[in-house]
Design goal:
mainly alpha, 2 domains, about 0% strand
């Protein structure tokens, strides 16, 4: 394929990703992943920052991981410095799906504690997927600082990340069960249940955690916030 042909194809991809219909954009991203070309990577990464539909963004990540992993990694990593939270979150999500441990040094404490919930959630998933041997205990310490944060989706995401660390997460969970904040204690107890039984639903675990906390005489707030 000549340079002119490549440029024309890339321009068509860029235009198709601007379609009004989310279904059309989804199909475009799927086609780009089904027939990958190195030149598509730039356009796909660019669109991750602005795509409004969650499912289309997920398809963009799927398309990217079907491209050359080294080229994708090189292009995705700079997105972590973007001023756009969605760009950072989607970059982290893509890194988690790539599963390339060369990205591990980029998953910093700043991302794991990012004030934007979606960035932090994506960072937790990426960290749990990429953590190398010997780093799990240190990662668990950082993740434990986020106990009690956010809504149920956020808390479920943190619990799953800690559960993925296995025994390395046990000390921080045990410590958090004694925390003065009810939300932190209940979240830690629910996480402990998920570690013991990964098949248990988070809502079931959190309900059981609240009952356990109540039985120990701790006053409960109306909701976990």
């Amino acid at each position: 394929m000549t340079n002119n042909q490549i440029e024309e194809t890339v321009n068509r991809l860029r235009a198709a990703l601007q379609a009004e219909s989310a279904t059309d954009r989804m199909n475009t991203a799927m086609a780009a992943g089904t027939r990958p070309q190195d030149a598509y990577i730039e356009v796909l990464v660019e669109h991750c920052a602005v795509e409004p539909d969650f499912f289309v963004r997920d398809m963009l990540t799927w398309a990217l991981i079907n491209h050359d992993h080294t080229l994708t990694l090189e292009r995705v990593l700079p997105e972590l410095n973007s001023a756009i939270p969605q760009a950072r979150a989607q970059a982290l999500h893509t890194l988690s799906k790539l599963g390339d441990q060369r990205a591990w040094p980029a998953i910093t404490t700043a991302f794991l504690t990012d004030p934007d919930d979606q960035v932090a959630l994506a960072a937790w998933r990426a960290a749990a997927a990429l953590v190398p041997d010997g780093e799990a205990a240190a990662l668990a310490e950082v993740l434990a600082s986020q106990f009690g944060r956010g809504d149920r989706a956020m808390q479920r995401g943190l619990s799953r990340a800690l559960a993925a660390l296995g025994d390395a997460a046990t000390p921080v969970i045990v410590r958090a069960k004694q925390h003065p904040r009810t939300a932190v204690r209940a979240h830690a107890i629910a996480t402990e249940q998920l570690v013991k039984d990964p098949d248990v639903g988070f809502d079931v675990a959190i309900a059981a955690a609240r009952r356990t906390d109540a039985l120990h005489g701790a006053p409960l707030v109306g909701d976990l916030e």
